[in-house]
User: Fold these one by one.
Assistant:
Number 1:
Amino acid sequence: MIQFQCDYNEGAHPLIIQRLCDTNMEQTVGYGEDQYCEEARALIRKACEREDVDVHLLVGGTQTNTTVISHTLRPYQGVLTAVSGHINVHETGAIEATGHKVLAIASEDGKLTASQIEVAMQAHLNEDGPEHMVQPGMVYISFPTEVGTVYNYAELEKISTICRKYSLPLFVDGARLGYGLCSPESDITLPQLAKLADVFYIGGTKVGALFGEAVVITNEALKRDFRYSIKRHGGMLAKGRLLGIQFATLFTDNLYLKISQHAIDEAMHIKKALKSKGITFLMDSPTNQQFPIFSNAQLEVLTKEFLFSVWQRIDEEHTAVRICTSWATKCENVDKLISAIEQL
């Protein structure tokens, strides 16, 4: 069975495995204070073109989201997000478990707009006694979004501007950041993101690492005591070197973006084949996640050889699935899938 259901099926890039093996018997201090974590932090700062950012290495996405959000918010505050945002639909109430409400806003394409944030803030401020309501305390967006769409620079700049108008920290979930940056529709660079966001993270779990996410904090107010929050949420890995080695490798010789580009290239090959066959899409995604709508009969044929994620039942006869490529997707497997699509 050839798997296309997610972008973390494989282990890690061979260069990471090699470096982990090469350094395996070295003795280092723990908890992210070793030389490899410092190397990773220095390389990430260089990539962001900012020496003033704090970089922290955590293990996984949900852990990172709960740590950042609970660290940022006051007890009476919630976080604004698109209704399809990962923290709203795929994290088992993790944010609510920290005592903070997820304030979901309707979105057809997975994205928030600056005007939606403005409306939400004005609605709260114009309440008869706003202190009786959960106060919006930050904004969470994903790049790319949960449905594979991306913000352009103008959109993100407007969001950043409105967030600063209302003193709302902007948090960008970058679990698939490499795939967003390499999208043919993206005009955003890592240094630009570092200017517009108050805090964001660079996903490793889905982009070449065994595990790990690199949190980049640009807002001075959020930097204070963040390590306390990491520890409190169980995110302070004793063998922190394992994270440092991985991110140092990913940010050497532009490896992170090189392997991300591979995933995009293969996804675009699949998208072209689907369009040529007349297959429609639930969402027009320019990233490594594609959401074609198949008839159930077509899906029955394809799933004999390929594994996808069922995304949404369209009607009794049609189903939208997610086809996901990754940094490790084999070209020959993509060719097999395209051949199968052409024969439908």
Number 2:
Amino acid sequence: MKKLLPISISFLMIVPTVFAQKKETVELQRDVALLQDQMRSMQRSMDEKLATLTVMIQQTLDSANKANTAVAVLEAGLRDKLKDQEAKLVVPVTNVGAKVDSFSEDMKGLRGSVDDVNAKMNKMQAQIIDLANAVKTLAAPPPPPPAAISPSASQAPTGPPPGTSAESLYNNAMRDRLAGNADLALAGFNDFLKYFSGTDLAPNSQYYVGELFYGKGDMDAALRAFDAVLEKYPDNNKTPDALFMKGKVLVKMSERDEAAKQFRELRKRFPTHDLAAKAAGELRALGLSPAGTPSGSKKKK
């Protein structure tokens, strides 16, 4: 009996412990079951959301494919329209280009014809001058006997040398000028002025004399030559050139006020001439406006 008492006591102590562990196991199983239920709910939610996202992606892809198809159709339509417009414009543009080329060729031909006419007119003018000189020579009284000619009279020129014509003299001088033979050109133009000063080409000769002196750096002689053009031949085709070059000579001679007068006179008398714009540039270079007002910062002493 005494032996059973400790065993009974031990049993009674173990039983509550076993019951406590069983209760904890049941609670743990309940928690695991609850957790599994929550996991299943989350899985169902994720599946539903994934299905919805898949549908949305498919719809987006369908919309993108439709947009690409629309863009391709629009691009094809634009390409076809561009080709059609190009086909319609190529022929007219080609025709216009051909007409412009033809017009340019016609203008070149017309310009050449005008140059030929001018050359023939100059030649005819020189021939008329030669004929007039020949008539004057024939109409002049015969020269006195050699014994009656005084030394001073024998040295005075009576006309151009035999065989010298206005045309040949002027053309030779021009040829020397264009070739850069300034001294020969000066001699030729001076001879022309000596024998044919009353002809239509005299203003040209006088102007080229001034131009040649300007090129040689002889400003005094150039100024006298340009003054002769303006004084002896006031109304001719070289008047604007003479005014412009006289102004440039005066600039070289530091005569700014006198130079400005020549440039302004050129602009006043020949406002549409090509040299009028160049005269305005020369005035601005002097620190003056074309109208005569100083420009301030560009004023020179």
Number 3:
Amino acid sequence: MKKPNAIIVGGTGQFGITLSKELIKKKFKVIITTRSLTKAKKKIKNKKIIIKKLNILSKSQIKKLLLKYNPKLVFYMAGQSSPGKSFHTKKETYLSNFIGCRNFLETLRNYNKSSKFINFSTCEIYGNYKKKININSIKKPISPYGFAKLKAHNETKKYREKFKLKFYNAIIFNSESIYRPRIYLIPKICLAAIKAKKNGLKSKFGNLKILREWNWCEEQCKYLLKFIKKNPQDFILSNGKSFSASQMLKFAFEYFKLDYKKYILLDKKFIRKADSSIKKSNFLSCQRRNKIKRIDKIYGKKIIYKIIQHYLNEKKY
């Protein structure tokens, strides 16, 4: 029996790599698209994955890709993904997160109506919302990244409702893995603890009071695939388990039996512009509606320990 095809657009990051493993287990043929074949091949070692160069701003290239592979699933996770960086890369952020997504929506509507399209949306579309976020909470993004993602979110929803297509918005909350770039907070925390243990070095951080639901990427992918078996919809992907940045620091330094307060310096230049203080999800509402029961095994301290152990094993510090 011929394997179904799954295309992951912009799939060289942690979600693309992790999701591709899950899809291969489920007997999918996986195609990952990228802007740079050289960089992609350095990141993706699995020979079963097909890597294709794609300009997401070119509808003709998208059409050619979709007609060639006739995918059962298309995951859109391309785009500049840092809220802080988006203030300096407004045009790139808008084009990659919104225009590229819209190009896929239009091309799928015209040529591949049977494909399921999953847009990777984000909790950043809700801005500085203080209460628990559900899919109908007020959406007021506070960064160019959040604004571009909201445009893509609304466009995906519009195409689903207007043209009765199998299009989804997966509203992703903070997710971590061994593939997470080191510029992000959790890897920085893990590396700070290692540097303190190995060399007695101190590290600088910004706002440690922020509260987030940090998820393990493998578990996020597992539940993502459960949701897209249900009717097309918008849904929240998170575990509901929140920790402050200072708690995560404490976990990291406790791994080495150190007091993080002795090794951390607060520096205002590391405080992100327009960074919301709290991000909590009403994750249960989506699960109950879809009769999905989520049980997470890796969160909080376990996330920190897994990443530290990876860095130590690989000597990547």
Number 4:
Amino acid sequence: MKIGLVADEAFDLPQEIIEKYKIGVAKFKVDLQELKDLPGNIYQKTREAEKRRISSTVKTSQPSINDFLNVFKEKLNEFEEIFCVTISSKISGTYNSAVQAKKFLQKELQDKVHVIDSLNGSAGEGLVALEIIELIKDNLNSQEINNKIEESKTKLLGVYHDPKWLEASGRFPRFVPAIMQRVEKMSIKPIIGMKNGKLSVTGIKRNITDLSSALFEEFEKATRVARENGKKIVVGITHADDISQAEKLKEMVLSLKNTKVAFINLTCFPIGGHIGPNSLILAWQE
């Protein structure tokens, strides 16, 4: 392929896809602080810290300009042009880092880098990346790919296990976690989504038996008309160390006609850390 792909770590695609398509990844910086010596992945460390009553605060920061610049240079040695997909500019400065990094390239290389604001994250950003890969495989040129991505719509829903992580993240206004703590006691759980690139509460579920069922019900309702009209729905699923719920959600999605699950993967901590262990995310494109 003449066109390659770069993304920030928040696109949450499985490693086998990253390797297959030689995707360059700009990593977020994660400071584990007191968790660094605990066993397991980041979510397992967090749970263990809670048991031991150790402070489980983990600091994250976006990829730097230099991080993107290094990946751009590497991939421009492999491809004639590259697309770069980032997490929504409405919730992170990552997009700006990528845009600024492009300006540090030699002038003749700057036009060969196309930075895309996914207005999404995690599974949603991953689906945007996969869409670009498919357009590249179809031999579209960069302008045609840009046009197609501008026309496409990617939707995302997520649900948390415990609202305390929302408050710890600092990504929500202070009153939001407080309200969610209260409604939790009433067996009510909000569904979180992306709206115009921003996190927002998109629905309310009562008497939830499990997170996968809650997300599936919202997904089924939101895609019913499109599926009945024969549109193919492509789905991505990520989880904060709860593969059983992710697999259950996959099976429910595949029980519907005209659906395809493109990937299941662990949610990167710069996203999952804000909604906590056992959270679940589902994104789709029609």
